[in-house]
Amino acid sequence: MTTTITYNEIYQQYFQRIVNYLSRTVGSDDAKDLAQEVFLKVFNSIDKFENKSSTYTWVYKIATNLLVDKMRKKQIIVDRCNLIDKELFSKSKVEYLKNEFRIVQDEMHQCICSYIKILPLSYRTIIILREYESMSIDQIAEIMNLKIDNTKKLLLRARKKLKTVLNEGCLFYYNELNQFSCEKK
After folding, report:
1. Beta strand segments in the chain, E
2. pLDDT tens digits, 69-127
């Protein structure tokens, strides 16, 4: 038995997720416009969707392919981390922190965001899909058109590169709450 999902259901379920993904990848300035393009492509190709993959990975694959195409044609430029982007790189909302610790956490998220955004697109994409979108290796492989082994290798190289650029540009320490923190050198 095959259930068909409607365009409206896809839009309602995935639009904000795709906006967040695109914001993390290229910045919030272009994210909504790009998301509109993604969903135009979804709308135009929904009849061709054969349920060979999940709707979730299908929509992300369309978004990722659009990003790659736009970056290749230099139609979008990755912007620096702004306040909106910084929030997207915070993995948890920490309401219990005092203001001074929240400021340190905000600076750390902005620092990490800025270093992720300077990575090559394939590294940036795989880190965002894995660490911030919480996708499995199988899902990422499908989205990025890679074999499972190649996906694992790419993720390993991307993490290594991110670690290198973070070590070159940041000082790491544990703050008074024994939380891992960083600041730019």
Report:
1. 170-174, 180-184
2. 988 887 666 655 654 555 566 554 555 555 666 666 777 777 788 888 889 999 999 99
Q: Which of 18, 181, 44 is nearest to 111 (CA)?
A: 181
Contacts of 10 (CB under 8 A, 6+ apart): 39, 42, 46, 55, 59
One-letter amino acid at 5 equals: I
Q: According to the 3-state scheme, what is the secondary structure of 95-128?
A: CCCCHHHHHHHHHHHHHHHHHHHCCCHHHHHHHH
* pTM for this prediction: 0.79
Phi, psi of 79 (to 5 degrees): -95, 165
What is the set of domains in the chain, with CATH numbers? Answer: 89-133+149-184 (1.10.10)
